[in-house]
Amino acid sequence: MERIQQLLEENEYSLAQVNVIKIRLGDWFMAGGGPNDAYVWQQAHYLENLVKYGLVNRVSIQQREEVHHYE
User: Fold this and answer.
1) What are the DSSP calls for 46-67, one per residue?
2) What residues contact residue 40 under an 8 Å CB cut-off, 6+ apart?
């Protein structure tokens, strides 16, 4: 889960991409799955592949600092 959070902070995923992960993980946890299960890592790899194939933009350090400033 930490890796997924890191990827979400470092990249600009579309709402649809984030919703896919939220639904998949929500269903997984509702079925009794744990945060360190292989399925959760599979979702992290999905996010990593979106970055790898250039389907998302990287968030600049300045943008990340601005987000944390408002939290």
Assistant:
1) HHHHHHHTT-SEEPPHHHHHHH
2) 1, 4, 25, 28, 33, 34
pLDDT of 21-45, one tens digit each? 999 999 999 999 999 999 999 999 9
Give the H or E element holding residue 11. Answer: strand 11-12
For 44-64, what is each residue's pLDDT tens digit? 999 999 999 999 999 876 655
Burial zone of 69 (CB within 10 Å; 0-12 exposed, 13-18 middle, 19+ buried): exposed
| Structure token pair of residue 57 | 């933009």
Residue 18 tokens read as 């984030």
Give the pTM.
0.81
Give CA–CA dist 22/5, Å, rounded. Answer: 12
DSSP structural state of residue 33:
-
